[in-house]
Amino acid sequence: MAIVAVSISPTVGTPDEGVSVSRYVARALEVVRAQQAVRYRLDPMFTTLEGDLDEIFALIRRMQEAVFDAGAVRVGTVLKIDDRRDRTVAMEDKVRSVEEQLE
Amino acid sequence: MAIVAVSISPTVGTPDEGVSVSRYVARALEVVRAQQAVRYRLDPMFTTLEGDLDEIFALIRRMQEAVFDAGAVRVGTVLKIDDRRDRTVAMEDKVRSVEEQLE
Amino acid sequence: MAIVAVSISPTVGTPDEGVSVSRYVARALEVVRAQQAVRYRLDPMFTTLEGDLDEIFALIRRMQEAVFDAGAVRVGTVLKIDDRRDRTVAMEDKVRSVEEQLE
Amino acid sequence: MAIVAVSISPTVGTPDEGVSVSRYVARALEVVRAQQAVRYRLDPMFTTLEGDLDEIFALIRRMQEAVFDAGAVRVGTVLKIDDRRDRTVAMEDKVRSVEEQLE
User: Fold this and answer.
1) B39: contact with A, CB 8 A cutoff
2) Residue C76 forms contact with B (CB below 8 Å)
3) ipTM of the complex
4) Closest by Cα among D28, B90, A10, A35 to C86
5) φ, ψ for residue C29, nearest 5 deg
6) A65-99 b/e (C-beta count within 10 Å ≥ 16 → b)
7) pLDDT tier at D86 (50, 70, 90 boundaries)?
8) What is d(CA C79, CA B80) in angstroms, rounded to the nearest whole number?
């Protein structure tokens, strides 16, 4: 099981009316919401995904295609992956274990 | 105003008992909680910061030192910065504007 | 065609003698050198890959497994992807086009 | 001493004629070339910087302003920092130590 933060956005020159990227992010997120295999959470700078890494990679490929389908001709993606084999950790556990250390 | 996702963690070889990094993340977060200038939010893969970019950079420097103070001899940090000059956007606005596009 | 910068390294707690990660990076790079579909270049902070995005994703999955096979129980990966559909750009072209603007 | 990979680019909606970002990257790189404190290397996906971390952060702030000065109203920056206190490592050493493991 892996937890992955992903950010996908069109690069300069898209047929866009301003500097908003939310329209493109929403198209990518529709792809995420249409499936069940990978859990997700929408955070300010990244969408956090949790599940089998192969399924997450396949999902990110489809998310990226959705941004191209929305009109982008060039897309920039940033991923940060936490893949561990010792035990299963849910995305909420990561936040909780830090908060417990703080109390 | 900028919104910044930051991840700070010790690299291999720390005097650690396992593969948990939450102890180090908590030390960095204590630095964040002890100040008022920069707003923050703890997400699964990143801590999200919002404020003046110079203040955010100064804060990240202190967060990193806290991880060294906790025993790390080598620290890896990943930042993603969204800096816009057209208008002020809070971190909650970024999530909300995507969610509005989805409805 | 896409150009991808990838960094794969074990997280804290690996059965390691120090803070060096080069042993693990080398194992991942052996996987890259054993194939022909994806071009690569070893840079200081990232390995740069160029090719079809599906083949690059499949390669990164195998690179990550090589780091686990080398003894890591938890692996952190960072990817930055530049995927464009308007024209084919080699990794050397990206450096060259910036250098031409500088002269 | 730290080694930092930095990527700075304008987000959608810039007054630009296409999807090229090399013009903006060149403006940021002019700032780097005009100083001596931080060593640099231009790689395909990132510019690699080596030096004192405070000086690198100050430089990145100036690089980012140069991209705004070139016409961007919103800028996205990605940083990956390797900060170690056990010994000084040059950016070339990181590549060399991996290559030595491969031979």
Assistant:
1) no
2) yes
3) 0.93
4) A10
5) -75, -30
6) bbbbebebbbbbbbbbbbbbeeeebebeebbebbe
7) confident
8) 12
Chain A residues with CB-CB distance to D10 below 8 A: 12
Residue D91: its pLDDT value, please? Answer: 96
Kindly give the residue spans of alpha helices, DSSP state H, lying in C1-103.
22-33, 53-69, 91-102
Task: Give me C67's structure tokens.
Answer: 């780091």
In this prediction, residues C9-38 reach a mean pLDDT of 84
CB pair distance less than 8 Å for C43 and D48 = yes
DSSP-derived secondary structure for A10-53: EBTT-S-SSS--HHHHHHHHHHHHT-SSSEEEE-SS-EEEEE-H
Distance of CA D3 to the CA centre of its chain: 10
**pLDDT tens digits along D46-59:** 999 999 999 999 99
C74: helix, coil or strand? strand
CA distances to B88, C3, C83, D27, D29 from C88, in Å: 37, 10, 10, 24, 24
Using alpha carbons, list the distances in angstroms from residue A76 to B88, B97, C4, D11, D41: 23, 20, 10, 10, 22
- In the beta sheet, which residues pair with residue D76? B82, D9
**Is residue B20 classed exposed, middle or buried when 0-12, 13-18 and 19+ CB atoms within 10 A define those classes?**
middle
Query: Residue A77: closest CA among chain C residues belongs to which residue?
Result: C81
Closest CA to A94 of B84, C11, D47, D62: C11
Distance CA C94, CA C45 (A): 17
Residues of B in contact with D57 (CB under 8 A): 57, 61
Residue with tokens 């730290």: D2
Size of interface B-C (CB pairs under 8 A): 49
Residue given tokens 């491969």 in the structure block: D102
In degrees, rounded to 5, the angle at the alpha carbon of residue B63 between the alpha carbons of residues A94 and D43 is 90
- Which residues share a beta bridge with D7? D78
Question: For B56-76, how does the pLDDT look when each residue is reduced to its tens digit (9 = 90+)?
Answer: 999 999 999 999 999 888 899
How buried is A39 (Cβ within 10 angstroms: 0-12 exposed, 13-18 middle, 19+ buried)? Answer: middle
pTM (predicted TM-score) = 0.95
